[in-house]
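Running co-folding for N-(5'-phosphopyridoxyl)-D-alanine.
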Amino acid sequence: MKTSFYNGEFRDDDELTVQYRDRAFYFGDGVYEVIRYYDGEFFTLDEHLDRLMNSAKEIEIEGISRDEILSVVTELKDRNTIDNGALYIQISRGIQNRNHAYPVDVDPVILAYINEARRPLSQSENGVHAITSEDYRWLKCHVKSLNLLPNVMEKERAVKAGAHETVMHRDRVVTEGSSTNVFIVKNGILKTHPANNLILNGITRLEVLKIAGRLDIETDESAFTVEELKEADEVMITSTTQEVTPVVKVDDVIIGNGQRGEITRRIQEVFSTNIHKLNLVK
Ligand code: PDD
């Protein structure tokens, strides 16, 4: 039996009901995180909690504390007998009759649950295909908002095209994937869009930049075009659930030799070591 959390209470999944007046439903009025844990240990938990607090602040949700969130996610993991999972947590502005303006005297509502998750080992080795499309999202993409319509529509376009991800661009300048950050390697330099309002500053993105630093791989946080993407030696997408995944084809163009590149492989190796270290350094 799985245990989930909603509006102040832990409940068996089968018995959990949610309030239809929760603003998450009709306005997507909230923020979220997906936090991975491996062999019972959270990975980059602090970073996810900081980003969640920051997203809440950016959309002016008040009355939520980091300690409260920490205690919910910790207890939720402990109450479930899932060793390797992805914890989803969202904070909505609250429960009230539908009215655009913020409600007064209403507390934010936390929803959290866990799904079993496995490492994406096969795609990490063999790579995936991506398509490209125009990025028509709002201008606060650094906020991890519940409003994901463009993202889900663009992911679906990838699925329909037999691909794994859609890489989005604004006037040919690559921003990020529908649910991932995007990196290219050209002449040994690892490049990714700067962390501004046009992308989510992925926790995995930051891990990859740190790892590159340790491996003496030159990094460049500046934007690149769709054309540069297709002419890259290596392309990778990163996220909490996708980890570091090579992209071996973009639209109809084969990247490099059509296989995972060497820099991608070296970064993945350290990333895996970091995951395993979690359980050695307790
Ligand atoms: N998505 N960009 C977007 C638009 C994302 O939705 C995500 C993550 C990322 C990568 O961020 P991180 O490395 O912190 O997971 C970048 C999550 C996993 C999701 O919505 O399921």
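Result summary
The pocket of N-(5'-phosphopyridoxyl)-D-alanine is lined by residues 34, 151, 176, 179-181, 200, 202-205, 238-241 (CB under 6 Å).
The mean pLDDT is 97.
Job closed.
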